[in-house]
Amino acid sequence: MKSTSYMLVRFNYQPYTKLIMPPKLGFMNNPLNKVLNEIEKGLRIGFDYIELTVEWPLASVEILEENKTELRNSLASFNRPPLIHAPWYLEIASPYEDVRIGALREAKKIMKLTKEIEASLVAFHPFSPKWFSVLKEDAKKLNLEAFIRLVELGKENNMIVCIENTDTGFSPLYPP
Fold first, then answer.
1. Pairing with 174, which of 8, 45, 63, 103 sits 20 to 30 Å away (CA)?
2. Which of 106, 138, 135 has its CA nearest to residue 122?
């Protein structure tokens, strides 16, 4: 079965013919490739924006910060601001407190970078390994606590935090 990802998108509730802005087409970088090369390819193809995945090996916060000015300038070449995509494997709701603390520390680094490159929207995945779905109430509680903290951090940094659905375990649209 093919996995489908969903992202929170805000629409004006107007008839289709009265949309103010036509839909835009974006792409996600491959973290196995250098980000600036990916951006160059996306611009050459004609994409309107990038969903910049911030993850290891070649798109980690540390690597992106090394070229922050060049990255910000390249991102400004798109028609729309970038969306930032946190790694799906960031264990923000791990049952192990030290792991949760480390994951939230990494999330803060991602949000700091988001602000520095002048983006305002960042998507996080709930922690949802398949084995965690049998502990439905614990999964909901830990993920809710994590997202409350992420939204608080988002407000402090003037950015929108989105939750991206997963196909296993915890999902906000398809409760366990």
1. 103
2. 106
